[in-house]
Amino acid sequence: MFSSVPERVQLHIAMIIFQIGYAGNHIILRIALNVGISKLVFLIYRITIGLLLLSPFAYFLEKKDRPALNASYVLQFFVLGLVGVVLNNGSYFIGLENTSPVFASTIENSVPAITFALAAIFRIEEVNLRRKDGFAMVFGTFACVAGALIITLYRGPIIYSPDSGSHQLESMSFQEDTEGKNWALGCVSLVIHCVCWASWIVLQAPVVKNYPARLSIACYTFLFAIMQFLAIAAFTERNIEAWKIHSQSELLCVIYAGVVASGLAFAIQIWVVERGGPMLVAAYLPLQTLVAAVMASVFLSEAFSLGSIIGAVLIILGLYLVVWGKNEENKIKSEIEPLRSMLEKNCLPGHEKSLLVEPLMVSSNNF
Predict the structure, then answer these.
(1) Phi, psi angles (nearest 5°) of residue 305
(2) What does 139-192 look like in DSSP terms, one character per residue?
(3) Which residues contact 321 (CB under 8 A, 6 or more apart)?
């Protein structure tokens, strides 16, 4: 049934599933940290589960498509593991420890803008602001970021509350519970986290073009990330007790994070980057904030405020503009590509006359 759905629709369905799963991961992550599990050990177990989940599929499904490893591929996978997993997650945990969940969630919404800038600089995404499709994608991306910021920073009057008597309007502050925290270190770490995340999204685009085995890319990325984490753990986590799972809660958190946030999320993201480009992946990231707000209202009985509604409208509008702009861009490419390939064929060495000149030459001779 899913194969009968147009690919452009599949891409958006995949990204919605990705964001819902990742929004749940934020809750799981907080539970894991609260029960006292080592952050480094948690990350190693999580990535290992993702590797074990994807490896059989990568091995059997991509036997014919998987090129042989060479020094270039090894270097690319090493960089993806370092930037996308080790530096990305490590800087996030340091930032979260030294700031607050509110600030960490807020600054993460800059990832689409950073991704857009990097993709444009390296010409991975061709965005023409003079065309309506390019303007729509850029405006939609920043509308998504603005909507996520409003949800995070502005509450306003409570519109809906599961228990109106138990909720009071409180002002949100970046620096909540700052005692014993290095705020400057936390801010710098979160900025590094956002740059690494955006860079990782952009770096995947050229890799998937040259290495046509998406699941294998994820597995090699996990493998190198585990090696890098283990090298760090050799100096920082020598106590055997830190590697033990002490409760059922810790075990469930690790399994969920490994299966959903690592295995499924990595596979979906690489597939969407290959088929839809880095900007499509980045544009959906603010949706996590909206999903988290809805989950908090439904499962944690938190109030849904005016700021949440305004932010939700902006995110939905922004995503619509990005989707519409991407579809228009694909239409333009589908019209231009045949003409471009015909021109290239007629401009090969030995074919000095272009496609546009030759008919004129023939016509003039016949005349």
Answers:
(1) -100, 175
(2) HHHHHHHHHHHHHHH---SEEE-TTGGG-------SSSS-TT--HHHHHHHHHH
(3) 136, 137, 139, 140, 143
CA 325, 327, 329, 331 torsion-angle sign: negative
d(CA 91, CA 109): 16
Per-residue confidence band for 366, with pLDDT thresholds at 50, 70 and 90: very low
Count of other CB atoms within 10 angstroms of residue 169: 10
Query: Percent of the chain having pLDDT more than 70?
Result: 70
Q: Quick check: 186 and 77 in contact, CB under 8 A?
A: no
What are the tokens at 320? 């619509």
148-188 residue pLDDT tens:
777 667 777 776 665 544 444 343 444 444 555 777 788 88
Q: Evaluate whether 10 touches 231 at the Cβ level (below 8 Å).
A: no
A 10 A CB-CB count for 252 gives 14
Mean model confidence pLDDT for the chain: 76
CA angle at residue 143 from 138 to 147, to 5 degrees? 155
Helix, strand or coil, per DSSP, at residue 349: coil
Q: Which amino acid is present at 185?
A: L
Distance (Å, whole) CA 311 – CA 299: 20
Burial zone of 104 (CB within 10 Å; 0-12 exposed, 13-18 middle, 19+ buried): buried
Is residue 196 a contact partner of residue 114, using CB atoms and an 8 Å limit?
Answer: no
Position with higher pLDDT, 55 vs 21 = 55
- Model pTM score: 0.71
C-alpha 280/C-alpha 284 separation (Å) is 7
Mean pLDDT over 345-360 rounds to 48
Angstrom distance (rounded) from CA 313 to CA 307: 10
285's tokens = 């990231």
Q: What letter would DSSP give residue 3?
A: G
- Asked if residues 307 and 157 have their Cβ atoms less than 8 Å apart, the reply is no
Kindly report the number of other CB atoms within 10 A of residue 174's CB atom: 16
Structure tokens at 222: 């996990």
Burial of 62 (0-12, 13-18, 19+ CB in 10 A): middle
